[in-house]
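To whoever picks this up:

The nightly regression suite flagged ABC transporter ATP-binding protein as changed. Nothing in the input moved, so I suspect the structure step. Input below, exactly as stored in the fixture:
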Amino acid sequence: MPPEVPLAIDVRGLTKRYGPRVVVDDVALQVRAGRICGFLGPNGSGKTTTIRMLCGLLTPDGGAGTVLGLDVRRDALAIRRQVGYMTQKFGLYEDLSIRQNLTFIARLFALPDRGRAVDDALARLGLAERQHQLAGALSGGWKQRLALAACLIHQPRLLLLDEPTAGVDPKARRDFWDQIHQLAAQGITVLVSTHYMDEAERCHELVYIAYGRVLARGTEAEIVAAAGLTVFEVAGPLEAVRTDALKAAPGVQSVAAFGNAVHVAGRDGALIQQAVAPLAALPGITVRRASANLEDVFISLIGQAQDNFASAPGATKS
Ligand SMILES: Nc1ncnc2c1ncn2[C@@H]1O[C@H](COP(=O)(O)OP(=O)(O)OP(=O)(O)O)[C@@H](O)[C@H]1O
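Regenerated output under the current build:
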């Protein structure tokens, strides 16, 4: 990405406390215009809180920076007008039709030509034919599409999407991601939180947060490389494999099942090899070196974070 592309999000030191608990702790985020940045982390790690500070709905207790060139502390109202925020709950009126929901949002933004803005949003998301259906009667995938239409109606330059595909079927998720990539190609910046690894892989770049702190950032390849994990895949009749013993073995940071295999990962290659070597003697079991994937890395990072932060005063528990 050429450095002359402006930063749509450029914040540092972002911090939020609830009482004695620091739920977002010194977070820095930089996302260039037109990029799709995946925001990952376990439940309760501070993603929603960070997103709400970025769109001006929550005032940070610390930190500074800009969103779309506007001051994240001073210009909250102006930021809100240029940002599309999709919440986890979609925020639709179930007893209004698709069109009525969009008209309502267009009114909230006091858009000058409401009818046209609604028509454009309906057309863009393929909702025109269903415009008179009640939102409450739509399937999860169509609700999600309507929610995306609603957050695009004022033509925002930045989309903040908080777990937009939770509970949505694979076809609808694929359509959604195609749409997100089309929007990014038009120059719209997207910060999207997700728990799905296949969605993380569709992002241009990723930020991983746990206990309110950023633990990893970069492209998928950069994050995997930086983690420096050694991974062995143990496959075969896994009933014979004592995964609890594996988890407790020195140097093992994660043991995760993938279909008929488990991935055993850690940073110390020699220790990992030592842990898995005896398994190769079990009947039908094969042990081979594998490439680390994002999930291996994130499981390993959260394990380290638990050791480092979970017992710290004010730590958030997920
Ligand atoms: N208004 C509030 N008052 C007190 N604590 C809060 C408040 N809002 C959030 N928290 C706490 O802050 C922490 C971070 O919450 P947040 O919703 O930002 O996490 P998240 O990463 O979005 O989680 P999830 O993946 O489950 O959506 C959690 O421990 C949560 O309980």
